[in-house]
Prior knowledge:
Layout: H1 2-10, H2 16-30, H3 40-49, H4 51-56, H5 58-64, H6 67-73
Amino acid sequence: MLWLRDQIQAERDMPADTRTTLQRVLERLERMAPDNTKATAGWERIRQQAPKVWEATKPVRDTLIGEAVKKALGLG
C-alpha cells in the first residue's frame, strides 16, 4: 500500500485535491480485509481518477485485492 501511495503522490498530471482524496482512499482500503466488497468503491475510484497509476501498479494491486473484490471490479 505504501508503494501505491507513492505512485499516486508521484503522478504529476493529477490535481492536488484528487491526490489527497486518493491517499485517503488508500488509507481506508489498507484497514479493510482484501475480500471486503465494501472496498470495491475505493478501488473503482482509484481506477477512474488515476488510470495511469491503476495500470502501472497492476502486479501489486492485484495481490492486494481479494477475489470477491476482483469479481466486483470485473478483474477476475
